[in-house]
Design brief:
The protein is mainly α. The chain has a single domain (2-295), classed as Orthogonal Bundle (ABC transporter involved in vitamin B12 uptake, BtuC), CATH 1.10.3470. Helix content is 72%, strand content 3%. It contains 12 helices and 2 strands. Strands 1-2 form a two-stranded antiparallel sheet. Strand 1 and strand 2 form a beta hairpin. Helix 9 (235-246) packs across helix 10 (251-271). 43% of the residues are buried.
Length: 309
C-alpha cells in the first residue's frame, strides 16, 4: 500500500506540472480560438531569460543574496514576457482579427521559430541552471501509518504546490474578475464581444501576458528540475495529451487532465511495465489521447460542438 501511495503521489506531482504547461494552451485558445504552437517556445524563452538574468544581476549589481537575485530575475523575466506578448499582439495578431483558424495556427508556428531563434541570439545556447532554492533531498512521510513510510521528493512537492497556487489564482481570475469574464466572452464570439464594446486587441494582449507568466513559472520549475536547454520546448508536447483529455476550452479540464495523465503514466509504468518490457510512460498519454479523439474529441470538459445544417 505504501509503495502504491508513493507512486500515486509522484504521479499527482508530475500531473500538476503538465497542467501548468497545458494551461498556456487553454488560455490562448479560450481567448483567440487558436491552438498556440508557440507555447513550448514561450516556456523555453522565459526559462532562458530567468536563468541568464539570475547570472547577470549579481555581476551588474554586486548583489550576493541569491534569493533576492532570483526574485529580481523573475521580475525582469516577467517584464520581458509582457513585452513579448505585446509585440506578438501588435505585430501579428492585430492584423489577423477574424481570420481563419488555420491562418492563426500558422502564425503561432512562425512565432515559435522566431522565439527559439531570438532566445538563442539574446541568451545563448548552452545548458543553464536555475536554482530557486527548492530542496532536492527526499523525505520520508507517514512513517507512523506505513512501515518504512512514503518517500516524497521535496522538489516535486514544492513544484506541485507552486503550480497548484497558480492554477487556483487563474481560476479565480477567470470567474471573479471583470477582465476574466471579458476573456470568456471573447472566447465565445469575437464579433459579438466587439459589438458590446469589449476591445479585442486589449484582451489578446492580456491573455498572452497571462500565458507568458504561466510559461515563465513552468519554465522556472522545469528548468530547476532538468536544466534550461533547447529540448525544453518538447515539454509542450507532453502537455498536448492533457489538453486533448481535459478539453481545449476548460481550465479545470487542464488540471484534471494533467492529474489523470500524470498518475496514469506512473502507475502503468510501475505496475504494467514489467510485463510488457517497460517504456509505457513514454507513450501512455498519447494512446489515451488517441482514444479520446476517437470517442470524445471535445475532451472531458470541452464544449460539445453541434453543427446544424
Amino acid at each position: 500500500m505504501a509503495f502504491f501511495l508513493e507512486t500515486l503521489l509522484g504521479g499527482l506531482m508530475a500531473g500538476m506540472l503538465y497542467s501548468l504547461v497545458a494551461l498556456g494552451f487553454v488560455l490562448i485558445y479560450k481567448a483567440s480560438g487558436v491552438f498556440n504552437f508557440a507555447q513550448g517556445a514561450m516556456v523555453l524563452f522565459a526559462a532562458l531569460a530567468m536563468a541568464r538574468f539570475a547570472e547577470w544581476i549579481p555581476l551588474w549589481t554586486g548583489l550576493d543574496n541569491m534569493l533576492l537575485a532570483n526574485l529580481l530575475a523573475f521580475a525582469l523575466a516577467g517584464f520581458v514576457m509582457f513585452v513579448v506578448a505585446w509585440l506578438i499582439e501588435f505585430l501579428v495578431l492585430r492584423h489577423l482579427v477574424n481570420q481563419e483558424a488555420a491562418t492563426l495556427l500558422m502564425a503561432t508556428l512562425g512565432i515559435a521559430y522566431f522565439l527559439e531563434g531570438l532566445g538563442q541570439a539574446l541568451f545563448g545556447n548552452d545548458i543553464y541552471k536555475i536554482d530557486i532554492g527548492m530542496p532536492k533531498d527526499p523525505i520520508m512521510a507517514f512513517e507512523s501509518l506505513f512501515e518504512g513510510g512514503i518517500l516524497i521528493n521535496k522538489e516535486d512537492l514544492y513544484a506541485a504546490l507552486i503550480a497548484a497556487v497558480l492554477v487556483a489564482a487563474l481560476s479565480l481570475f477567470f470567474q471573479k474578475t471583470s477582465t476574466g469574464r471579458a476573456l470568456r466572452a471573447v472566447a465565445d464570439d469575437h464579433q459579438a464581444a466587439q459589438s458590446i464594446g469589449i476591445p479585442l486587441n486589449r484582451i489578446w494582449v492580456i491573455v498572452w501576458c497571462v500565458a507568458g507568466v504561466v510559461a515563465l513559472v513552468a519554465g522556472m520549475i522545469w528548468g530547476s528540475k532538468l536544466g534550461v536547454q533547447f529540448s525544453l520546448t518538447t515539454v509542450a508536447l507532453r502537455a498536448l495529451p492533457v489538453v486533448i483529455l481535459g478539453g481545449l476550452t476548460s481550465v479545470p479540464g487542464a488540471i484534471i487532465g494533467g492529474l489523470i495523465i500524470g498518475v496514469g503514466e506512473k502507475l502503468s509504468e510501475v505496475f504494467l511495465g514489467p510485463y510488457v518490457g517497460g517504456g509505457i510512460e513514454i507513450w501512455f498519454a498519447y494512446v489515451l489521447a488517441l482514444g479520446f479523439l476517437l470517442f470524445r474529441p471535445q475532451g472531458l470538459f470541452g464544449e460539445k460542438i453541434i453543427d446544424r445544417v
